[in-house]
Write a structure and sequence with these properties.
Distance between the termini: 26 Å
Order of helices and strands: EHEHEHEHHEHEHEEEEEEHH
Helix content: 25-40%
Shape: globular
CATH superfamily: Aldolase class I
Oligomer: single chain
Length: 327
């Protein structure tokens, strides 16, 4: 139900209710991960083109009034914005579940804000447990700091998930190592199938699919299936007796479009009704012109396709790189 007691009106023509908004705070990042932002000398949006603090809060409040019940802050790297604590504090006062995806390197500087505002969960992107490989993948030698901040997150009582984008021949040999982390630590590992985006040199041979991931884990561990919520993108499991869990996000091998409840707002104020949509709706320009953007939001949701289709030329994301969408 919305804050005014009305049912969520953000329903598309396939009767999917949309109550989850992902907001990108910036297209900038302090890492240069090969599968996300391969060009070291990226061109970013000028500051005036991005949503400002008050604009993010006001647009988010509108979405909440329309029935949004969960907001995830993303980037680029959301914590590179100096006003990130102010944005988190304001959003946390709304009747939503607030969470964030971060690369973790600046997490120690914002952890007190997250705890004080009642944020309960956090996703940290970490694709390898090897320091040298980490430096190659991210072009930054920051593994120790990220790992220390993950420990701080656990100590602060946050439900801490680790996002691992698997690439065959790069980090797939570490699948069992990541699962082993959950033996004593209450971490929640999420293996993500490699997805096609502009300039990330995607091909199917780099994808490690769900069934293969599961077979590798079963060869070493006795696992049990956990319950998945209706809108979950991850298939969740636990090794018997372990403190944490693991899951697989099957973006490539097994579509979960039928239960999709997600919308995305890019840092420059464009609404995308699907991660793989090659169209978007400008909300920021009319918002700055004092226009009512509610009809635009409704139309964007209504126009959402039933599925993202197969990864061919019609679906491969070509209008934006991953860094400029916010995941």
């Amino acid at each position: 139900m919305g804050t005014d007691g009305l049912a969520n009106p953000l329903i598309d023509q396939y009767q999917r209710v949309h109550d989850y908004l992902r907001i990108s705070l910036t297209d900038k990042c302090n890492f240069r991960c090969l599968y996300c932002m391969p060009d070291e000398n990226m061109q970013f949006w000028p500051q005036e083109k991005l949503m400002q603090t008050d604009e993010i809060i006001a647009i988010a409040r509108l979405f909440v009034s329309l029935g949004v019940r969960k907001i995830r802050l993303t980037g680029g790297e959301p914590l590179v914005r100096k006003d990130a604590p102010a944005i988190i504090t304001a959003l946390a006062q709304m009747p939503i579940e607030l969470t964030m995806t971060t690369n973790g390197v600046l997490l120690d500087q914002c952890l007190d804000t997250l705890v004080a505002t009642g944020v309960r969960s956090l996703n940290v992107s970490l694709d390898t447990l090897d320091r040298e490989k980490f430096a190659v993948l991210t072009r930054r030698d920051q593994f120790e700091r990220v790992w220390q901040n993950i420990q701080l997150s656990l100590q602060a009582g946050l439900h801490t998930k680790i996002n691992v984008v698997l690439l065959r021949g790069v980090n797939d040999a570490e699948i069992l190592d990541f699962v082993e982390l959950t033996r004593h630590l209450p971490l929640h590992i999420r293996f993500i199938e490699f997805m096609p985006f502009v300039q990330n040199a995607w091909n199917e041979n780099k994808v490690v699919p769900f069934q293969e991931i599961l077979e590798r884990i079963i060869s070493q561990f006795e696992i049990e299936k956990l319950s998945d919520a209706p809108n979950d993108t991850a298939k969740k499991f636990r090794v018997a007796g372990f403190a944490g869990t693991f899951a697989v996000i099957t973006t490539v091998s097994d579509l979960f479009c039928a239960g999709c409840n997600r919308m995305r707002l890019t840092a420059d104020g464009k609404m995308k009704n699907c991660l793989f949509s090659n169209t978007e709706t400008d909300l920021l320009t009319p918002f700055r012109q004092k226009e009512d953007i509610t009809p635009l939001i409704f139309q964007s949701v209504w126009d959402k396709r039933p599925t993202r289709g197969t990864f061919d030329d019609t679906v491969m994301l070509t209008d934006r790189s991953m860094i400029s969408i916010g995941g």
